[in-house]
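Lab notebook, bench 4. Still working through the backlog of constructs that have no structural model yet. Next entry is a single chain of 315 residues. Request: give me the structure tokens for it.
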Amino acid sequence: MLTARELPLLLIQGQRRVGKTSLLNFLPTLLGAGFRVVFQDMQGAAVTSVPAWLKDLRRRVAETLQLKPDDWGPPDDWVAAWAQLEPWLAAAAEGAHCRLILAFDEYETLHRYLAQDPDQGRRLLAAIRSFSQHQTQVCLLFAGATPFSELRHPDWSEFFVQALRLRVDYLWRADSLRLITQPVPSLRYPPEVPERLFDLTRGHPALLQTICKHLVDIANRDGRRAMTMADLDEALARGVDRESPAMERFWNEFCTAPGCRACVEDVLAGRPPANRAALTRLAEHGYVIEEDGRWRLRVPLFEDWLKRYREGFGG
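Model written out:
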């Protein structure tokens, strides 16, 4: 964004609970005064339809740029509403002497509204693409767990084939070990504890954060700073419970796609997955990996959780 003469249309894509929203929250600091970032949670209460989305977006831009609020009411026709919003967005950015970043978090929610009228949805996506290509003041940034290629009727990839996709994934080993040991430097870990914690989480940020919080709670409870493998076992027992959000969302959201749960069952049982399409999707999203000719879940704690709890979640 800082170096491009023409702002690209961006997709920040990754699994649930890996830090996409946190990355968006850092953008104002990273980009500096020449950019203004407008955040919009597409799952928020104000977004109940396409016109409601556009009305809420205009309100948020006005608040961010400290413009006088207005009572704009978008027409019911989606393309007509966007046509009214386009020049207002460009003029607002130019008047504020900045580049405007419109960041749509959990953008897949918008697709559900577009899918209610796919023909009108296609025309709206075409208009948004044209706007993105023919001006340099406003950048559209979508963030979510789903790549454009998986959203059909309307087909997002048809219109945003030139979009720049930035994947947010788990933390690397060195970053994971720093996250475990450095934020609370007074805690002392034998080397095998951070290593085992990384092996079990594979650097999944939300899991690391949760388990490290339990380790700190254990240290505070016992009034000591030297941590042990037994402390890690206790933290794991606390952190990998029935309501673990990262695992529960994987099983109850991602795995509701056709064939996905059966494919995961094959992986857990050590069988070659029968549904190749479901396996490909699981691999592309980073949930399974192949090692020594055998597929397994990438995060061992996900596998432990599924073996323990999946029957209670419709498995």
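Notes after review: Strands lie at 10-13, 35-41, 99-105, 138-144, 164-167, 288-291, 294-297. The longest helix spans residues 78-95. Flag for follow-up if needed.
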